[in-house]
Amino acid sequence: MFLDLNMPLMNGWQFLDALAPHENLLRGHCHIFILTSSLALTDMEKAKTYDLVTRLIHKPIDRLEIQAIYSQLQGERAE
Predict the structure, then answer these.
(1) In angstroms, rounded to a whole number, what is the distance separating the alpha carbons of residues 43 and 11?
(2) DSSP collapsed to 3 states, 43-63
(3) CB atoms within 10 A of CB 13
(4) What tens digit of pLDDT does each residue of 27-75 get?
(5) Rounded to the nearest 5°, which phi and psi values hold at 48?
(6) Total of domains in the chain
(7) Domain with 53 in it
């Protein structure tokens, strides 16, 4: 799942907090890649506190980044 931090009504952090009660059911089945234009170190540190977050990616995302994500997920499936 790609999650943008800057969304209307509910930002990405609020979404992750709302997902937290379901974390045990989602672990291993749901990979969240945060998309952000922010370069703030605090955002990178905060992302690490959520177990479902696989990685924080800076926008704009390019084809090579998407291919790397795909390869990473395929590698996990093979294990």
Answers:
(1) 13
(2) HHHHHCCCCCEEEEEECCCCH
(3) 15
(4) 888 999 999 998 889 999 999 999 999 999 999 999 999 999 999 888 8
(5) -70, -15
(6) 1
(7) 2-78
